[in-house]
From TrEMBL:
Keyword Electron transport recorded: no
Name of the molecule in the record: CoA transferase
GO molecular function, one term: transferase activity
Pfam families for this protein: CoA_transf_3
Entry keyword set: Transferase
Entry-linked SUPFAM superfamilies: CoA-transferase family III (CaiB/BaiF)
InterPro entries: CoA-transferase_III (IPR050509), CoA-Trfase_fam_III (IPR003673), CoA-Trfase_III_dom3_sf (IPR044855), CoA-Trfase_III_dom_1_sf (IPR023606)
Keyword Transferase: yes
Chain spans, region Disordered: 325-348
């Protein structure tokens, strides 16, 4: 099921943003075949808990062997999309670059996921999420006044600036290929996507309504009515009362005679009042007080939290014994759902290759070009 039902994707396994993008394509209904290296790659845990690999089968191929490369070429002949996350030039050296694949299938959408992009002075340099955010300016935005930049795990770079832009690019190229019959290369670079995410703030910077100094602006904890406060039990609540009517409800619920929020010179005083007030009750008490109100106050929950709203929507589910996020977004006519749990590298080599029409599987396994877990 899902709106991409019938779309076939070959994934040349990598780490981080490319697997997450392929996870999304699979959850949207595409059939994604993950090509792992024998033994697998880097993982933050055992294969069955590597959740970004959920939703698709794994075939293990040793791409150092010509026979294995030939298998991928035969898969490409049937596929709508190929996704790879190698450094620039690696796929070409394997004989699986865009020119190689488009010679086999001109309609193929070739998705490339990197940090620095396919060209530019840093294209061949190593890097991680934090580096791409640093160069794009996105990391500079995050943090309190007078303090260092704060690291948002790897959510903002790898997955927001990387995976989601790759998925958008692949979907757009698929749509165009339906009209033209021609595929194309999608060059998704985390540094580009992260920079693109700052578009609204770049406009505000040009207008003079945003300052380069972090922690001094409306949306970066500069404003006391858009910040996080500690509660009496050492937990936190998030306050986002930007609009006047929401702020008025916040102050009313708190029972405060607060300083004028429209006077930035009084913001330190207002912050002190809010800080002292929120420390007077526990997070649970504040959550109950503000439940269903327009004061824009929410408890800061740990990963996989159990808030009633999340429970009602099924935002988190238990799938094959593991707590995880359900697919997003949602569709009313072609609904998505969780399918396969994460596969061990090579778990489905024989069955998946057979389903894709590869006939010489025994010979591939005997030669080591393919490996069945």
């Amino acid at each position: 099921m899902g709106p991409l039902e019938g779309v076939q994707v070959v994934e040349l396994a990598g780490i981080g943003p490319a697997p997450f993008a392929c996870m999304m394509l699979a959850e949207l209904g595409a059939e994604v075949l993950r090509i792992d290296r024998p033994g697998g790659g880097v993982s933050m845990g055992p294969p069955e808990l590597d959740l970004v690999n959920r939703g698709r089968r794994s075939a293990a191929l040793d791409l150092k062997q010509p026979a294995a490369v030939d298998v991928v070429r035969r898969l490409v002949a049937q596929a709508d999309v190929l996704v790879e996350g190698f450094r620039p030039g690696v796929a070409e050296r394997l004989g699986l670059g865009p020119a190689d694949c488009h010679a086999i299938s001109p309609r193929l959408v070739y998705g490339r996921m990197t940090g620095w992009g396919q060209d530019g002075p840093l294209a061949q340099a190593a890097g991680h999420d934090i580096d791409y955010l640093a160069l794009s300016g996105a990391l500079h935005l995050i943090g309190r006044a007078g303090g260092p930049p704060q690291v948002p795990a790897n959510l903002l770079g790898d997955f927001a600036g990387g995976s989601l832009y790759l998925v958008i690019g692949v979907l757009a190229a698929l749509n165009e290929a339906q009209r033209s019959g021609q595929g194309q290369v999608v060059d998704a670079a985390i540094v580009d996507g992260s920079a693109h995410l700052t578009t609204m703030l770049l406009g505000a910077l040009a207008a003079g309504s945003w300052q380069q100094e972090r922690g001094t602006n409306l949306l970066d904890t500069g404003a006391p009515f858009y910040d996080v406060y500690e509660t009496g039990d050492g937990k936190h609540v998030a306050v986002g009362a930007l609009e006047p009517q929401f702020y008025a409800e916040l102050i009313d619920k708190l029972g405060l005679d607060a300083p004028d929020r429209n006077d930035p010179s009084r913001w330190p005083e207002l912050r002190k009042v809010l800080t002292e007030t929120f420390r007077q009750r526990t997070q649970a008490e504040w959550t109950k007080l503000f439940d269903g109100s327009d004061a824009c106050v929410a408890p800061v929950l740990p990963l996989a939290g159990d808030h009633p709203h999340l429970v009602a929507r099924g935002t988190f589910v238990d799938h094959h014994g593991v707590r995880q996020a359900a697919p997003a977004p949602r569709f009313d006519r072609t609904p998505t759902s969780l399918d396969r749990p994460p596969a061990r590298p090579g778990e489905h080599t024989r069955e998946a290759l057979a389903d894709w029409g590869i006939t010489d599987i025994d010979g591939l396994l005997e030669s080591g070009a393919a490996v069945q877990d």
